[in-house]
């Protein structure tokens, strides 16, 4: 049986679906850990949902707000339960809000878990390529407004926020510049509101806050 102080919680900090599940599993393997990591996230919950009258791919696009609301409630319950069971976890959401990160990790810290952040900031061009791949392979597309909200609210980890911070895509200096360059356009789009007939775009999955 694992002890709490030997367990680690990795929390991904990212714009929606920057990583595919295969990327998460590859990362875990690279940690050279012989223990099993459980992945906790709203995207996995949404994949198990059925929306009456809609195919799953259409549900992802057309019922985004409703799916996120429902899946977040389930996720919070799973998170509370997980903190009572000593093992290793990966929290697979966007986690761009510092306050949300603190809230999610509080029960784990209180129990004695180690906490590590994995920051995923890539260029807007690369994010667009991953979004296109996600839509092509899985039919998942997040509204552009949701992506822009995450961009303007993205807060990189602060001092002493985690036991360790890993910048998996780009070093912190590059990540800071990437966000600084992307935020003005995102803020302008939010002020302008959604384009008529737009179906969203630019993101890719159900990981909120």
Automatic annotation (TrEMBL):
Q: Where is the composition biased (Gly residues)?
A: 196-209
Q: Where are the transmembrane segments?
A: 6-28
Q: Which GO terms describe its biological process?
A: alternative mRNA splicing, via spliceosome
Q: Where is the signal peptide?
A: none
What GO terms are given for molecular function?
Answer: RNA binding
This protein is called: Uncharacterized protein
What are its GO cellular component terms? nucleus
Q: Where is this region: Disordered?
A: 183-209
So which domain of life are we looking at?
Eukaryota
**Is the Cell division keyword given for this protein?**
no
Which species expresses this protein natively?
A: Heterosigma akashiwo (Chromophytic alga)
Task: Answer whether the UniProt record assigns the keyword ATP-binding to this protein.
Answer: no
The protein's UniProt keywords, in alphabetical order, are: Membrane, Transmembrane, Transmembrane helix
């Amino acid at each position: 049986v694992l002890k709490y102080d030997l367990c680690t919680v990795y929390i991904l900090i990212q714009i929606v679906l920057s990583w595919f599940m295969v990327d998460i599993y590859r990362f875990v393997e690279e940690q050279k850990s012989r223990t099993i990591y459980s992945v906790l996230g709203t995207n996995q919950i949404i994949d198990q949902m059925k929306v009456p009258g809609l195919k799953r791919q259409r549900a992802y696009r057309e019922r985004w707000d409703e799916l996120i609301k429902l899946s977040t409630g389930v996720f919070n319950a799973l998170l509370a339960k997980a903190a009572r069971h000593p093992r290793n976890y990966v929290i697979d959401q966007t986690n761009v809000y510092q306050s949300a990160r603190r809230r999610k990790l509080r029960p784990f810290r209180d129990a004695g878990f180690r906490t590590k952040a994995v920051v995923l900031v890539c260029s807007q061009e690369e994010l667009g390529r991953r979004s296109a791949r996600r839509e092509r392979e899985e039919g998942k597309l997040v509204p552009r407004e949701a992506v822009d909200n995450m961009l303007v609210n993205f807060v990189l980890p602060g001092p002493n926020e985690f036991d360790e911070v890993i910048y998996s895509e780009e070093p912190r200096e590059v990540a800071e510049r990437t966000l600084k360059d992307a935020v003005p356009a995102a803020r302008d789009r939010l002020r302008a509101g959604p384009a008529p007939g737009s179906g969203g775009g630019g993101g890719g999955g159900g990981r909120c806050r």
